[in-house]
Specification:
single chain, about 170 residues, three-stranded antiparallel sheet
């Protein structure tokens, strides 16, 4: 159970990383390896100070076996996970760089937006954002520069501020 913003990464044999999951307060992670009876192989990194609640395997298995509501919640999480991964794979295969970067920014906004804030702003390393968009850091930086010139985003003190959510969203359609 996650207590703050986290991202999950996987890497290939060459060390190239891809962010495969974004988590927020109250989200569950690590349940798939538990169900598969396999070790957790990905890398989890907190994007800010975080607190995790660990559920021991025996408690998890007991909850699944004895609590229908918990079992249904895990099934919904699995179904959502599959849908997200399918969407991510299709995007990697068919989307342009601009579209992948726009989608990465909008995904971060959807996941981490503070409802009180007028504009979404996030402090994220260019490398982490490149991993989410599945591109090289240099390509991401060029695309962010283009977005900045087009007044879609602003970069202030290392934070990326989305100025025109609608135009970013229109790139995805």
């Amino acid at each position: 159970l996650v207590g703050s913003e986290m991202c999950i990464r996987d890497s290939n044999d060459d060390g190239k990383e891809l962010t495969i999951g974004l988590y927020n307060q109250g989200d569950f992670l690590g349940y798939i390896p538990l169900l598969e009876n396999e070790p957790y192989k990905e890398t989890a990194e907190a994007m800010e100070d975080s607190e995790l609640a660990i559920i021991p395997r025996t408690d998890f298995e007991e909850l699944l076996g004895n609590n229908r509501d918990v079992a249904q919640k895990i099934i919904r999480l699995l179904a959502n996970n599959i849908t997200e991964k399918e969407h991510q794979l299709l995007g990697l295969a068919y989307n342009s760089l601009r579209k992948r970067v726009a989608e990465a920014l909008l995904t971060l906004m959807k996941k981490y937006r503070n409802s009180d804030a007028e504009k979404f702003s996030i402090h994220i390393s260019r490398e982490d954002l490149a991993n989410i968009a599945a591109t090289a850091t240099e390509s991401l930086i060029r695309t962010l520069s283009d977005f900045r010139s087009e007044k879609l985003i602003e970069i202030k003190d290392g934070n990326i501020v989305i100025l025109n959510e609608k135009k970013l969203q229109d790139m995805l359609n």
